[in-house]
Amino acid sequence: MTGRILQTALKKALQRGAPLQTRAIVPRVAQAGTETLGGPRPSAAAVRTFTSAGPKPYTVPDSAWGRNRAARLELAAAYRGLDALGLNEGVCNHLSVMAPAADGSDQEVMLVFEYGHHFSEVTASSLLAVDADAKTVEGQGRPDITAACIHLGIRRVRPDAKVIFHTHQPYATTLACLKDPELKMVHQNSTRFYNRVAYDNNYAGLAHAMDEGERLGQQLGSKDIMFMGNHGVISTASTIAMAFDHLYYLERAAELQILAFSTQKEIALLSAEASAATEKQLWDSLTMYADAHYYSMYRRLRKTQPDFEL
Ligand SMILES: [Zn+2]
Predict the structure, then answer these.
(1) How many A from CA of 190 to the centre of ligand 1?
(2) 3-state secondary structure of 61
(3) Residue 21 contacts by C-beta under 8 Å, 6 or more apart in sequence?
(4) From the CA of 57, how far away is ligand 1's center (Å)?
(5) How remote is the CA of residue 102 from the centroid of ligand 1, in Å?
(6) In the Cβ-directed half-sphere of 70, how many Cα atoms lie within 13 Å?
(7) 78 CA to middle of ligand 1, Å?
(8) Quick check: is 163 in a domain?
(9) What total of structural domains would you count in the chain?
(10) Distance from the alpha carbon of residue 257 to the mean position of ligand 1, in angstroms
(11) Which of 35, 195, 227, 246 has CB atoms 3.0–4.6 Å from 235's, for a disulfide?
C-alpha cells in the first residue's frame, strides 16, 4: 500500500475500531525471557516485565487480570505524573505499555489512553487496550492515530520495548529542533544517557502510518532514548518506572545544557572517560533509583489526585 492509501485505511479502521491490515507484518523476533506479539506463549515472569520486582504501593491478584490492573495503575500514574511535571502538550503525546489481556486469554495488549483525553484525566480503568492491529479490545473509543502508528510500529522492530513514552517536553524538544541536537555531557544528569540516545533528523510530517512507526523503531535501534528531529522525544524501557525516570532526567539534562550554553561562557564538558564511568555507576543501580523516584510520585498522587486509581 502507498503511504496515502495506508493512512486512509488506518484512519478508517481506527474510527470504526476494526482490525488493521496495513502491510505484511515484519517477523517479530522472539527473545529469551521476553514476551513477543504473535510469538511464543509468555512465561509468568515475562508478563511482569513492565514493572520491577520491588515492593509496590498497590496490591493486585496474581493473575492475568491482576497484572493487567497493575499495568493500568502504573500507566495512569505516569500520565498524571508527567502532567504534574509539565512534560506533556495539549491532548497530544502518548504513553503505552504492553500487558496481559485482562480476560486471561494469553493475548498481549497495548494499554494507551483514549484520543481526546488530557493526561490529567487518565484513570486506570479509562485506559484502552488495543491489539497489534490497533483494534480496541478493552474499553470504548480509540487511541490517537499517531499513538497507534508510533507505538505499535516501533514495537514491530523493538518487541522488547515493553514501555514507550512519547512527549514534546520543552527543553529536550528544543534540543531536537537544533541542527546539532546532541545531548552533551554537561552534568552528572547527562551521563545517564551517555551512548544511549538515538537521533532522527528525518521529520517528514505526522506519523499516520505504521511504516513511519517502523522507521522510527529502526532509527531507535538498540538505544533507550530518541530525539525526534523537529518533533519531540521517545523513551523506551522495560518498566514504567524507568521510562518515567528517563523522561524526568532527560528534561533536566536538556534544561541544564540549554542554560549552560545560554551563558555564552566556555562549557566544562565531561570527558568520555568520566561520562562512561558515571553512566556505569548510575546504571548499576538505576532500577533502584527509578523505582524510588517513580513510586514516591505514585504515593504523592494518591494524596493529591487519588482518582487516577479508579
Ligand atoms: Zn509527537
Answers:
(1) 23
(2) coil
(3) 9, 133
(4) 31
(5) 28
(6) 26
(7) 17
(8) yes
(9) 1
(10) 22
(11) 246
Which regions of 53-126 does DSSP assign to beta strands (E)?
Answer: 94-100, 108-112
Is 29 within the bounds of a domain? no
Instruction: Assess if residue 281 is contained within a domain.
Output: yes
Ligand 1 centroid distance, CA of 147 (Å): 8
pLDDT of residue 49: 66
- pLDDT at residue 37, rounded to an integer: 30
Q: Return the axis-axis angle of helices 3-16 and 210-220, rounded to nearest 10°.
A: 110
* Cβ 209 vs Cβ 22: under 8 Å: yes
Question: Using a CB cutoff of 8 Å and minimum separation of 24, what contacts does 136-140 make?
Answer: 136/17, 137/101, 137/107, 137/109, 138/68, 138/101, 138/102, 138/109, 139/114, 140/114
Question: Could you tell me the CATH number of the domain that includes residue 178?
Answer: 3.40.225.10
Query: Which DSSP symbol is given to 308?
Result: G
| Ligand 1 centroid distance, CA of 3 (Å) | 19
Residue 48's pLDDT is 52
Q: How far is the CA of 89 from the centre of ligand 1 (A)?
A: 9
Look at strands 225-228 and 197-200 and give their pairing: parallel
How far does residue 5's CA lie from ligand 1's centre (Å)?
Answer: 22
Domain of residue 213: give its range. 3-20+43-309
* Distance from residue 43's CA to the centre of ligand 1 (Å): 33
Q: Computed from CA positions of residues 297, 299, 302, 304, in that sequence, does the dihedral angle turn out positive or negative? A: negative
Edge-to-edge strand list for the sheet holding 163-167: 136-138, 128-130, 108-112, 94-100, 163-167, 232-237, 225-228, 197-200
Whole-number Å distance, alpha carbon 233 to ligand 1 midpoint, is: 8
Return averaged pLDDT per consecutive 10 residues of the chain, 310 residues in all: 43 44 31 32 50 91 94 98 97 96 93 97 98 95 93 94 97 97 98 98 81 93 97 96 98 98 97 98 96 97 98
